[in-house]
Amino acid sequence: MSLKLQIIIIASMLIAIAIIFRKIGKNKLDFKLGLLWVIISIVVMIFAIWPTLLTKTSRLLGIYDPVNMLAFCGIILLVMIIFALSSEISKLKEQVKRLSQELAILRKDTYDEIKKNNKD
Length: 120
Hints:
- The chain is about 90% helix and about 0% strand.
- The chain is mostly helical.
- Helix 1 packs antiparallel against helix 2 (about 30-50) and helix 2 (about 30-50) packs across helix 3.
- The longest helix has about 55 residues, at about 65-120.
């Protein structure tokens, strides 16, 4: 890996980390997901700083081409992120259902109260 590419990768990851922290600070990104992205960025930076570490790690895991290890890790990571997002969507779906039901009850109670007051 060339020095120029290493510098580009490291700079990109530092910018990504700064953006992630800013989004977490403004509550535009969930802390758990933001932390996951920060960890991923740090791991990418480590492999950019020490490219031989990627080769040694892939060989240790029995994967003889480091590019294949990156692809495999990317797929595993995407599956984990999809699972986390699916879980979050399920929780939010239940919250929306519960809030809709509570709102319907409140509207009915309000309607009944207005109707009762109009009769008096």
